[in-house]
Design brief:
The complex is a heterodimer of chains A (247) and B (281). Chain A is an alpha+beta fold and 247 residues long. Helix content of chain A is 30%, strand content 28%. Chain A has six helices and 13 strands. In chain A, strands 1, 2, 10, 11, 12 and 13 form a six-stranded antiparallel beta sheet that branches. In chain A, helix 5 (175-185) runs antiparallel to helix 6. Chain A is globular and about 65 Å long. Helices cover 34% and strands 22% of the residues of chain B. Chain B is built from eight helices and ten strands. Chain B has helices at 8-11, 25-38, 52-63, 111-132, 138-151, 198-208, 217-230, 264-267; strands at 67-71, 75-81, 96-100, 103-109, 163-171, 174-180, 186-188, 191-194, 244-250, 253-259. The termini of chain B are far apart. In chain B, 39% of the residues are buried. Classes of the chains: A alpha+beta (247), B alpha+beta (281). Chain A binds chain B through residues 99-100, 103, 106-107, 110, and chain B through 98, 100, 122, 126-127, 129-130.
């Protein structure tokens, strides 16, 4: 079978693993052969924070290579009534990471008599990811929620737990397409006369929907459906499920 | 090793039990004399086939303040009387613990032992949810706790847990109310009370339990509180929002603990509840 999937994840080949046995010079590997523990199931996640609201969403397509495994595999998890995590990457690692976090949150509530705050969850997620520094979760996370002061918070992560609180963030296969758009439209970069510009919730939701539509056009791994949520201190509201192109 | 001299109070029969079939005072006395020899460690049977250490552990449960459990087809309720080391200065001891969204326990006996069991139960529920993505079945966890308690009745150097639990839960097999003992026994109950003066509560429950099956949640709670009220002494302040706690779990009802001012709706009109039976809640 002709191996056609684009090389995007770390894999091992016999030549790399046992160079002393080959008797040939090491050559750079361009086509992936052999077995690897990771696969990228694709998808895009976006999180945008206003003053006191967060808009966060992710698509639901799950792919392997050029094939679609399912059109409806959600990438989000509601951690508390004020906090949602969306992750892209390898679905198996994402599912396990989400389960692990949920268990930790239940335990926290038993011990402390209250739900975990968003900044605390952010730190917990960072620590959980670093715990697996030498065999990472293949998950690229965006955490969105309301903090203890009622302000909106979005945190973005790398695979090993380096994280930062920011105004907006995206991750996944569509990240390179979405992030510049957010820089311009949410961060107002490279624009003049933006002193008092602010986004309200309706505009932000519309922007996020447009961002997903645009990504769906050009990124083959993003499409099908999108789950978008708005979080305020009153709680989480789910937008009606948003359809992208199925191609 | 040093064999401690027990005072006469504990050498005789357990104060809260009436010994059966020993009308002869002399034989009672004789047996009481020898009890000392067979009660020092858990691994020693008495000639009558009793393990006294377990019975003493169950005594600790009987000394704890009362807890009452009742269940209907769709809900299970526990009510507990809380004690405080000092009425003015200290907080009341926590008697009811949440184990999971669908399960909780009320304790009587050594609170520290209860906390250990509570932690174990919580861990088991979380692990079960992680592995099977479904809430743990109540009776399976209760059996696990009972087995855990039994280990401590058969290993040298480990004392029995000195706490009895009333476990309430709701799962796919309906509403549940279980009692666990330091002995490692457990029972499924329709209504039960353990702890100090629990016999009074049991008397009340025996009269009323036939009606519990189809009662709505709030009526169930009121019955539990009325049963608990029976265990308060003549001289005491009765039930107040400070000295009792109620927890409920059931169909479409996550485990919820009522304490403090949340109890007022239930404690008000408690006395007239009986005559207000025609009201639905």
């Amino acid at each position: 079978m002709l191996r056609t999937s684009p090389p995007s994840v770390p894999t091992f080949t016999p030549y790399q693993a046992f160079p002393e046995l080959t008797g040939v010079q090491e050559r750079p590997v361009s086509e992936a052969k052999g077995w690897g523990p990771y696969v990228n199931n694709g998808g895009t996640c976006i999180g945008v924070a206003g003053d006191d609201f967060v808009v966060i969403g992710a698509d639901t397509r799950m792919s392997v290579g050029y094939a679609i495994n399912t059109r409806n595999s959600p990438k989000y998890i509601k951690l508390t009534d004020k906090c949602i995590l969306v992750s892209s990457g390898m679905q198996a690692d994402i599912a396990t990471l989400h389960k692990t976090l949920v268990s930790r949150l239940v335990w926290y509530e038993h011990q402390n008599g209250k739900k975990m705050s968003t900044p605390a969850i952010a730190q917990l997620l960072g620590n959980t990811l670093y715990y697996r520094r030498f065999f990472p979760y293949y998950a690229f996370n965006v955490l969105g929620g309301i903090d203890e002061d009622g302000k909106a918070a979005v945190y973005s992560y790398d695979a090993v737990g380096s994280f930062e609180r920011c105004q907006y963030s995206s991750s996944g296969t569509g990240q390179t397409l979405v992030q510049p758009l957010l820089d311009n439209q949410v961060g107002f970069r490279n624009q003049n006369n933006v002193a008092n510009r602010k986004l309200n919730m309706e505009d932000t939701v519309a922007l996020v929907k447009d961002a997903f539509t645009s990504v769906g056009e050009r990124d083959i791994y993003t499409g099908d459906y999108v789950n978008i949520f708005t979080i305020t201190k009153e709680g989480i509201k789910e937008e009606p499920v948003f359809r992208l192109k199925f191609d | 090793y040093q064999r401690r001299v027990r005072d006469t109070h504990t050498v005789t029969n357990s104060p809260s039990e009436v010994k059966k079939g020993s009308l002869n005072t002399k034989s009672k006395l004789l047996r009481a004399m020898f009890r000392q020899q067979y009660d020092s460690d858990i691994t020693t049977w008495s000639p009558q086939g009793r393990l006294f250490q377990i019975e003493y552990a169950m005594e600790a449960v009987k000394q704890g303040s009362a807890v009452v459990g009742v269940k209907s087809k769709t809900h299970a309720v526990v009510a507990a009387l809380k004690r405080a080391p000092s009425n003015e200065l200290a907080a009341y001891q926590q008697k009811i613990f949440k184990i999971d969204d669908h399960m909780g326990i009320a304790i009587a006996g050594l609170t520290a032992d209860a906390r250990v069991l509570c932690k174990h139960m919580r861990t088991e529920c979380i692990n079960h949810k992680y592995v099977y993505d479904t809430p743990m079945q109540v009776n399976r966890l209760v059996v696990q706790i009972a087995d855990k308690a039994q280990i401590h009745t058969q290993k040298y150097g480990r004392r029995p847990y000195g706490v009895g639990l009333l476990v309430i839960g709701y799962d796919q097999t309906g509403a549940h109310l279980f009692e666990t003992c330091p002995s490692g026994n457990y029972s499924d109950w329709k209504a039960i009370s353990i702890g100090a003066r629990s016999q009074s509560a049991k008397t009340y429950l025996e009269k009323k339990f036939d009606t519990f099956e189809n009662l709505p949640m709030n009526s169930l709670i009121k019955h539990a509180l009325l049963a608990l009220k029976e265990t308060t002494g003549q001289q005491s302040e009765g039930l107040t929002i400070k000295n009792c706690a109620v927890a409920v779990v059931g169909l479409n009802q996550k485990f919820e603990l009522y304490e403090g001012s949340a109890l007022s709706p239930f404690l008000d009109n408690l006395d007239t509840f009986e005559t207000d039976e025609t009201m639905t809640t």
